[in-house]
Amino acid sequence: MKKRNIAIGTAIACLLLAACGQNTDKETVRVAEVTRSVFYAPFYLAIAEGYFADNGIDIELTTTWGGDKTMTSLLSDGADIALVGSETSIYVASQEAADPAINFAALTQTDGTFLVAREDTGDFQWEDLKGSTFLGQRKGGMPQMVGEYVLKQHDIDPHADLTLLQNIEFANISSSFASGTGDYVQLFEPQASLFEEEGIGTVVASFGTEAKQVPYTSFMAKQSVLDQNADLFVRFSAALYEGQKQIQSQSPEETAKAIEPFFEDTPIAILASSVERYKEQGSYAEDPVLTEEAWAQLLEIMEEAGELPEPIPFSELVNDEISKQGME
Q: How confident is the model at residue 211 (pLDDT cuts 50, 70, 90)?
């Protein structure tokens, strides 16, 4: 019934605009997101509040479940924009791509995963991971690289001090942990909180608070597409910025209600607590501008993980002018 009411409301709004003689034509923009998470709440909020529609954009959103799949979708023209870890643009550029993926707007600025333990000891210490089985993420992906970076900061060698499992597809990691695989796992929200509610595990630490700011997830498009329609991406950034400002100014409960259609099976209370967790640790970028300092931190994390093919300069893979214009 709720979806029907939303659809009816949208239809009425369109009729009113037409009656006033306004142009309701919008450009459809296909966005491929690497996962569905409250970590991306400012983007969903901007969609729900109509900020993209106000800028003449109709978002067609697809969840592609994994950085490699998301980038493949972008490069093969299956999507116009990819919402994915910035490291993927470096991997593509290192292969001397004729049409590289360019980061043009930032969405998140910290790691978005939480360490979930199967057993709650009540007094977690990082050294507890030694000798455990850790259900890891995809090799070379941001969750895994930041995870390893944080473990090393706590004098833990992720490849020697614990059993690291990396043979499970990204989309299946949470279900594998739920079925009994691993003592610890990295999970995004709201999955981490859902596991707590269901008694499957307990959040004992945040990788977002342990690591420095990093361009963890950004919007990117192929260079040729950016060149052909720069105004479209400026308007996209403007709409995103409105969502970023609103999530900072309103309560987690208000945000949860707005983004509920994106998480049909998740209770409002879980959505609200997930938003609050991310806000408290500063995970949501306050504006869409990706900075050189954050890019440098990304390169450091990739190099520490042994995954940096070459240190590609900020200027080659980031177009910060688009997001700056969008903010204006």
A: confident
